[in-house]
Amino acid sequence: MKNKIxxxxxxGTVLLSFMLTTLFPSCNDELPADxxxxxxxxxxxxxxxxxxxxxxxxxIVERAGRMDLLASRGARTLFPPVxxxxxxxxxxxxxxxxxxIPASFCDTLVKACLVERTLxxxxxxxTHQESNQLDLPVIIVxxxxxxxANGMTLSVINRRTAIINELKNDSVENGVxxxxxxxxxxxxxxxxxxxxxxHKDFTIFYxxxxxxxxxDSLSRYxxxxxxxxxxxxxxxxxxxxxxxEDYIGKRPDHRYTGFTLLIVPDKVLYEKYGERFNEGMTMxxxxxxxxxxxxxxxxxxxxxxxxxxDKTDPxxxxxxxxxxxxxxxxxxxxxxxxxxLSYHILDRLFTSTAKLINCWQIYTAYxxxxxxxxxxxxxxTIKLEKxxxxxxxxxxxxxxxxxxxxxxxxxxxxxxxxxxxxxxPENADNFSLNVAYYYVDDVLAYDPIMRNKVMNxxxxxxxxxxxxxxTNNNIRLCGNPTQAYNSGDNSEDGTEAGGYNYYLxxxxxxxxxxxxxTTFFISRPIVYWxxxxxxxxxxxxxxxxxxxxxxxxxxxxxxxxxxxxxxxxRGIGQVYVDGIPQGIxxxxxxxxxxxxxxxxxxxxxxxxxxxxxxxGIYTTEELEENARVMKNNGYYSxxxxxxxxxxxxxxxxxxxxxxxIYYNQDNLxxxxxxxxxxxxxTHHTIRLRSVLTSSESGNFTLDYMxxxxxxxxxxxxxxxxxx
Length: 723
Hints:
The chain is of the alpha+beta class and 723 residues long. The protein has 3 domains: 3-177, FAS1 domain; 189-219 and 252-456, FAS1 domain; 459-712, Galactose-binding domain-like (Jelly Rolls, Sandwich). The longest helix has 15 residues, at 283-297. It is globular, with a radius of gyration of 27 Å. The protein starts with a strand and ends in a 14-residue tail after the last strand.
């Protein structure tokens, strides 16, 4: 059902709208870009001065002392509220006039509606996320569910404020102006306050979070120590070579911490677990029931081994399970209810679904976009997936988000694991400075079903998801990936796409050891480049040396692979696992057609299989045999489910005419590193060390890794390696 919003327009706004549409026709999505009206010579400051229906917001800008900023050159987007929207804000806050608003709050309101790049509505994805001048999210949803009084789709900002269709996309000399119907008020509360104010639909989970003290753990926000020691590093490095381009890298401005909660509403517990929960129970009874459910999820011996429940406490001689599996020890990390809730908390902040999963470059005919993310339950992992009907015909919500879902396949005995459907709470704020929350329609657990069925598959893990700091500080998925490499990539002001390339000082990433002469360099996402998801992390330095943890996976033996793009100016690095060197050093300079790899390719990126495309030159049988040859040499072709390029600029779209599948390009491949025996309750490490001489340079790229249970590894045919 569509929500209809009647625009909050004063008579002045109506007259303004009439004048603009009569004299200067405003833009709509059907018109070509060059037909949009441009206010020649008019800055944002002039726009506010020249149009009376923005007089109230103009006064807010003046009291904030920001009129000079809006008069300066640049490429910004402004979301100014019309007078009626400001008047509503004054009434809500108990102000008699704009003059009553503290000047500091006026400054906050101005910064909340300013984005440091130009955004036109015709370029927005269904859910689009930017950062305003407060470094807080601006989330714009244009999905057709909310329309104005004329039935036109509205773009809604942070679920409260709508861009006025008749006035949107108005260009000024220093950017673009999108008038809105309400004041954009930033949510500057911390996590506990957010949940305090909005928990009426999840009283059971909220109470459980309080009793386990997990609610108190959601207070971390900014690392103030970093604000001091970051000054030991130059704001920008010199040009550094990565691939075949020179870049400028930006040092992160801050080091934020964040969390995302996946909450089961009371209604779901009553409906799906009616034998355990009902509305007539006391809260103590409900918490006891949730404890019992949690204890069942983690009662098996493997769980005890993974989470150290079978270890002995040296002070008492008892196991941690004997000590803490009771209803009076809820604050212990070994308690089942504490474990259960910790698994529902991700170790990073996703303020919108726009950045929940990197869907760019995933060919959904073969695979669903998927991320494997760590939680506050140590040694566990959760699966985030955007499920497409082409992969799982049984899915109820096509192109929607699921947690711990798995389609029926050979790896789970053709049993579909539905998982939990993720939704955004209605009629409530769901994010703040450091916490966001979403609803799921079933409980989640790192239980035998998750470990043995959902995770018994090829785990392809983007390195950009390995460290929560990259998500929390808007380094992962920053800017518009459809904008190609441009002059801004070598500018201290950022790119025309609104993104930055970053270098990370030593100590910025948790659980990473970096030598003094090593630089972590992150290239912003560009969908036309051959890195999965469009972005890549480069390890730079003449003698780099880096150690970090492997992702959490269930105990067992896995084949470890690294996926990369081979280029002549890349380096050679020795890979270690748990401190032990694995085979010969990894040379990223030669392609898969090299005799050391033995791949069969049709030129640099021509189609390989003649049965898939008329330009192909090999049969399926020849390529299956070649896959075995490559595996014997320690290599795999690039996967068929990943491509680069894009057909359009608003969403990930594959087209055979405009995109290249990784499988068909000879310098995109995967290298087997070794078999890894993952032990329970143990963190395993990877070390990468340059073997080049001190006079040579080259970078080791971290694009994606694969961890594959040894019993499902295959080469050729329709094995996991193909897709």
